[in-house]
Design brief:
about 120 residues, two-stranded parallel sheet, about 50% helix, about 5% strand
Length: about 120
């Protein structure tokens, strides 16, 4: 059975151990729209196809954890989790912090320690 790290790399298209490519500074949001189809319908269809592809990959590779970033809408992660049984965990980028985390004394180091624990769970 392949390691989870190599599986994650295959799903993302990266070589195992390689750094992911940097995101472009601007991204185009071009969606093909069939005659008579609304833009929102085309986007929903594209999102549904993405979710199906992710669910299939997670089930096939037996991936136990789905990560989301802080302050994000977790609807897609929740949908995928329900379909696969994978747990949803936070991987904090430390760019933003919730008011609750701030009020509870979260630090950069404590957030990174939480990330380490989440990654251990996902990779071992």
């Amino acid at each position: 059975m392949p390691s989870r790290a190599s599986t994650a790399a295959r799903i993302s298209g990266a070589e195992p151990g390689a750094c992911p490519p940097a995101a472009p500074a601007t991204q185009s949001s071009t969606t093909a729209i069939a005659p008579g189809e609304s833009r929102s319908s085309a986007i929903r269809s594209r999102n549904a196809a993405t979710i199906r592809r992710l669910i299939n990959a997670i089930n096939k590779e037996e991936i136990p954890v789905i990560f989301h970033i802080e302050l994000s809408n977790q609807k897609m992660a929740g949908t995928i989790s329900e379909a696969t049984g994978a747990q949803v965990r936070l991987l904090h980028a430390c760019h933003n912090i919730s008011r609750d985390d701030f009020n509870n004394g979260a630090t950069y180091l404590s957030l990174m320690q939480n990330n380490v624990e989440a990654l251990k769970e996902a990779l071992w």
